[in-house]
Each structure stands twice: as C-alpha cells, then as structure tokens.
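Risk register update: the risk of archive-format incompatibility is retired. Evidence:
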Amino acid sequence: MNRVASALVLACVATANADPIRLRADALATTASPAGLVVLEADGDEGSWLSAETLVWTAARDDETVGDVLVIAVHARSADGRLRATLGRFVATLGALRPVQIDGAGGRVRLPHRFDVEAYTGIPVVPTGGAPRAWDWMAGARLARRLGDWGAAGLAFREQRDGGRLVTEHLGADAGVEVSKHTSATARAIYDVATPGLADLALATTHRRGAWRVEGFAGYRAASHLVPATSLFSVLGDLPSQRAGIALSWRAAPRLDVDGELGARRSDEVFAIGVLRARLRLDDRGASVLTGELRRDGLGADRWTGLRGAARLALTHELAVTAELELALPDDARGRGEVWPWSLFALVKEGDRWRVALALEASASPQDVYRLDVLAQLGTRWGKP
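Archived output:
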C-alpha cells in the first residue's frame, strides 16, 4: 500500500503542477535511541476547480525504519461551489460523527431550499505495518439544512464492516444556532445502533461581549459504544463518564490574554479539573511571547497539579531563543519523586525558505531518574507561501 501511495504522491504533485505549488519538508533528529523523523507536505492548485495535497512521514529508530502516508488526495469542485468531491486518502467528517481516516472517495452537494448532502465510502486505514482484510469497508452520509444566517442542523449515519462483519453503526445528530448577536449554542449526539445505547452527547453555549468570552459546556461519553464492537475494550465493561464546566477568555490588555477553565469530571467518582493560562506578547507582531499556566487534572490515584512557564524572545527578525519549564506535582508520589520536571531550551533560525532549530531537553519522571536529549530540526519550503 505504501508503494502505491508513494507513486500516487508523485502523480498528485504532477497533476497540481500549475502555479502555485507548495512543498514543505521537515527533518527532526534526536539523541533518544537515536531516532529521526522526516515529514514531506505538498499541495497545489490546477486552476480554480482542481487541487491536490499530500502528507507523508518516515521515521527511523533502533535500526528500524517505518513510514506512512497520512493524507494523499485530489479535490475537485464546481465553479459555483455547489459540488465538491475528494478521491484518495483523507480524514472524513460527517457532522456529529467522529472523524475517520479512509482510502476512498467522498463528496458534497448543495441542493435547493438550503439542503446539503454529503457522503463518503472506502476502506478504513489500518495502523502502520497492518494490512486491510477482504471485505473491510466503511460508508456514511449526512443530510443537513442551513437555517438562514442563524444556524444549521444535520443528521448523519455511518456503518463499518470488518471482514464482512458489522463492527460499528452510528447515528449522529448536530445543531448550532445563533441565539442572539452575542450568544450561540451547539449540540451533538451519537447513538450506537449496533449495540443500542447513547455513545456521546455534548452541549455548549458561548457568550461574547467586548473583551470577554464565556462558554458553558456539559457532556456524556460511553467509550465502549464508540469503539468497534470487535474491540477488546468493548467486552471489558462500560464505564461512562460525564463532564461539565465553564471556560473564560479575557483580553485583559492589547497584548495580554487570560483564559481559564473550571469544571468537574465524573466516572466512578467525581474530581475537579482546572486550567489558568496567561499569554503576554512583548511586541506588536507577537514574535516575543511570555506564557504561564497552572493546571489541575488527573483521575483516581493519579491526580496532579502542573505548573508551566515558557518564553520566546526574538533576537532578530529571523533568530529567536525559546525556553520552557514544566513541573508536575502528584498528589500521591508513591516513591516516584515529589516533583517531575521537564525543560527545553532551543535556538531557532527561520527565513523565507529555511528553518533550523537546535534544542536541549532535560527531564525526570517515574520512568527515568534523569534524561538529557539533544534535538535538531531542519525544514524548507518551495513554491509560493
């Protein structure tokens, strides 16, 4: 499959040989093991109706080389935008249903009376090193209607089969409305038809006023209804979880943003979650930034409090230095250390075509008394930005 995909990469780039073509390559090397990663990204337009994109990665570690094609697709559209089609490997989305990566085809049609129909079908992408089996396929469709300029609602259905056997069959509904000039609300729900039960439910409302943005949210999720029926997880029992809370964003000053989240999560017990974050830009471009964060999270005996500070200082237009420090403080260390620190110091030079970075990473954790790594990154771009 990877050989076929690699050939298709070249075909896509050749098809999209009209101006502009954009190609980006990034290479990352680290002393951990050691290991290396190369990512190649390309996209281009053939006139106003045809475009292509691809994203490929390959990595090497401990004398083992692996790689995969994440996205490789050709997109076509009509002049008025009412018809759209995609062919290749891509991430498919249908309203409330969870995104999936497939090798196949998809499209959307805009009908009269503000109705939209979208659908896709293909073979689910298997993890690197795996191979699809005969009669593995997936298909889904969604019907939606735009409600003037103030909202939309849709209903979607997806079925997946593994070796001809039914593994997932989901029905999803989604809706979003502008309640007023400053307030909006969204809702989504997923129902598991194959093994009847509610799989996912999420509600949110957002209010914007001046420098403030306030969001209230609540949700329910039963993971065993979201994974395939053939998954080992599905036979281990169903432990649904609920989550609710409020999130705030505040533009405290022209260059200072403060945001936070406070809520609760419940599975077999209830525990609090919280985040407070501040970001200060030191110049109008945002090239130099200071960031601070306080986080409270965890589940059961693994509850922890985290502190993070980061700074990026632009020395020149192309040269910058960055530093980050994180501290995780577990409620119950259990002999694994009272504080788990992580830090990174990097020097970055980025021009119009090239990006070069060299970093030093140091940390301590329950797995390592101490760890020191050196990382290097080299990236380049071709074509128009």
